[in-house]
Write a structure and sequence with these properties.
The chain is α+β, with helices and mostly antiparallel strands. It has two domains: 334 residues, Beta-lactamase (3-Layer(aba) Sandwich), CATH 3.40.710.10; 84 residues, Lipocalin. It has eleven helices and 19 strands. This is Serine hydrolase.
Length: 456
């Protein structure tokens, strides 16, 4: 029996409810909902305050919208319709910032300004900014492109327009047909659909409320328009863990989760991939996004290693720390009910591994172990201490390509002697031999002919 068929323990559910209750009370928000998914299945949802349904009430999710926009862009890349290193100008000419690349826009390293010109775009109709020139303003670049991470809402406006230009349909239509419908996210929409929460501002010094407007953001929609539910976002988080071939393959989703922008000097525990935020919390790596718009705050975090995702949504402009709360929900489940490993099973006969290559190998005096995986893939990991390790996918020409870690994208190949015997493994010019510095081995620079010795 796997953990996916087992509900959470009552004690775990009690801890989850307590955490969101504290978050709602201390955050002074009219309502707050939380939900947890484990191994792709919603296992808990709870709410406090004025909530119709914890899992199915819509809240505005702000910048979590950016991750959806990024998925659409990655789909275009996978279809060969654009490249991540393409300049924006190639597909969306005339913006005035066309030299920036698609990857830079996705990772917020294009140097664009964080916000469009006044008035405050989140509380005013998108009709005030009918053209991209109105969004970009007279000074669209705040920094040189590619030099560092600078979060930009205008950058994701450009990405939404890029999707529309390449796909030939509005951003909203592409999102609905290519992502939301295949993933079964029927409660994620551009406009609110009942039951939905009203957005409120809570006075900082008194327990009174003021309604916040819910504007249609127009061209800025790809940066923060969406409404969604805790249940739908848990489904989306599970997609970010493993992909879905109807939307985006696992490898492309893994690419999104790979750091693409360095952290700022003030935040060494965070970073940014391609449309997703990255964070280190409680010793685990979290992937997801936070979001806010006047009247709403939202947080979505996923621990791939634990296969636990959590979503927290609230309807107040400020106060509830939804990102912190979502991370806490992941921690509560992961620590109270650790992931149960998959049952070990031998490989099928069709996946006969290259056993003659497995076992210890040496890069200089560093000891490594080569392990055979399914489908002819292999894994090379250091045997002692920290070191460079990666998994490798088998290629038809008998080589392997790195999938992660230091050797991601690097080629591993077997070098043979004239008689066909294995001389060494070549990995990015590094020679891995069966013995450390054995005389006669193909070690660059040669080996002292007197071999190993003690001190005199």
């Amino acid at each position: 029996m796997t953990s996916s068929s087992v509900p959470l323990l009552p004690s775990t559910e009690r801890s989850l409810l307590h955490r969101i209750a504290v978050g709602q009370s201390e955050g002074r928000t009219p309502s707050l909902v939380g939900a947890v998914a484990r191994e792709g299945r919603l296992v808990w949802a709870g709410g406090r305050g004025d909530v119709v349904s914890a899992a199915d009430t819509q809240y505005r999710i702000g910048s979590i919208t950016k991750t959806f926009t990024a998925v659409l862009v990655m789909r275009l890349r996978d279809e060969g319709l654009l490249g991540l290193d393409d300049s924006l100008e190639k597909h969306l000419p005339g913006t005035g910032v066309g030299g920036v690349t698609v990857a830079q826009l996705l990772s917020h390293t294009a140097g664009l300004s964080a916000e469009p010109p006044a008035p405050w775009w989140e509380r005013t109709p998108g009709a005030l900014r009918p053209d991209l020139a109105d969004v970009l303003g007279e000074r669209p670049l705040a920094h040189p492109p590619g030099r560092g991470h600078h979060y930009s809402n205008t950058g994701y406006t450009l990405l939404g327009s890029l999707v529309s230009a390449v796909r030939g349909v509005p951003w909203e239509e592409a999102l609905r047909t290519e992502v939301l419908e295949p993933l079964g996210m029927g409660r994620t929409t551009s406009q609110p659909v009942a039951p939905h929460a009203q957005g409120w501002a809570v006075h900082p010094w008194a327990d009174v409320l003021l309604p916040e407007p819910a504007e249609d953001l127009g061209l800025m929609a790809p940066a923060g328009q969406l409404w969604s539910t805790a249940g739908d976002l848990c489904r989306f988080a599970s997609f970010l863990a493993g992909g879905d071939d109807r939307v985006l393959a696992a490898r492309s989703v893994r690419e999104m989760r790979t750091p693409a922008a360095p952290p700022t000097t003030a935040d060494w525990d965070g970073g940014y991939g391609l449309g997703v935020q990255l964070a280190r919390r409680d010793g685990r790596t979290l992937v997801g996004h936070t979001g806010s718009l006047p009247g709403f705050v939202a947080g979505l975090w996923l621990s791939v290693d634990d296969d636990v995702a959590a979503v927290v949504l609230a309807n107040a402009t400020s106060g509830p720390q939804t990102g912190v709360l979502a991370a806490d929900l992941v921690r509560i489940v992961a620590e109270a009910e650790p992931r149960i490993p998959e049952t070990w099973r031998p490989l099928p006969e069709t996946d006969a591994p290259p056993l003659s290559l497995t076992g210890p190998w040496y890069w200089g005096t560093y000891a490594y172990g080569l392990k055979a995986l399914a489908g002819g893939d292999v894994e090379l990991q250091p045997l002692r201490g920290a070191g460079r390790g990666s998994r490798f996918r088998s290629l038809p020409d008998g080589t392997w390509i790195g999938l992660d870690g230091y050797y991601d994208g690097e080629v591993l190949r077997v070098v043979r002697r004239r008689d066909g015997s294995v001389s060494h493994l070549d990995l990015g010019s590094f020679a891995f031999t069966r013995e450390p510095y054995e005389p006669g081995d193909a070690v660059p620079g040669g080996v002292d002919e007197d071999g190993w010795r003690g001190t005199r």
